[in-house]
Amino acid sequence: MRKQNIRICIAVLTLAPIFAQPALADDAQADIDAGFVAFQRGDIVAAMGHYTMAADAGSAEGQARLAWILDQSEQNEEAVKWYRASADQGHSGGQYGLGEMYAKGEGVEKDESLAVEYFVLAADNGHAQSQRVLINAYEKGLLGLTVDLEKAAALRHRLDVQQQAASEDVN
Question: DSSP per residue over 78-105, as a string?
Answer without folding.
Answer: HHHHHHHHHHHTT-HHHHHHHHHHHHHT
